[in-house]
Design a protein that fits this description.
Blueprint lengths: L8 H14 L3 H12 L5 H15 L4 H20 L4 H4 L2
């Protein structure tokens, strides 16, 4: 597929600079960025599964929504209180 994309001059300049720094042509860089941002083949099935789970768990019950919010706040507080130190995970 061939596409034509119009970039503002400042974006085109920055794109050229980044591509040049990587030693590739701007069109190759844009293609890489787009490919890297696309979901992998079969990823749609995972998104459908997540959507199905979300639909199953859907509620407008105020008590349930409050309980879920409280669980989220507790998880967030625990994560903030006990941050993972990536250096500790390395070799």
């Amino acid at each position: 597929m061939a596409l034509t994309i119009e970039f503002p001059p400042d974006v085109e300049t920055r794109l050229g600079q980044v591509a040049q720094a990587r030693g590739i042509e701007p069109d190759v860089y844009v293609r890489q960025v787009v490919e890297d941002s696309l979901p992998a083949p079969g990823y749609g099935a995972i998104l459908e599964l997540f959507a199905a789970w979300e639909a199953e768990d859907a509620t407008d019950d105020p008590d349930e929504l409050a309980a879920r919010q409280a669980e989220w706040e507790e998880l967030k507080a625990n994560l903030e209180a006990n941050p993972v130190r990536f250096r500790e995970l390395g070799p």
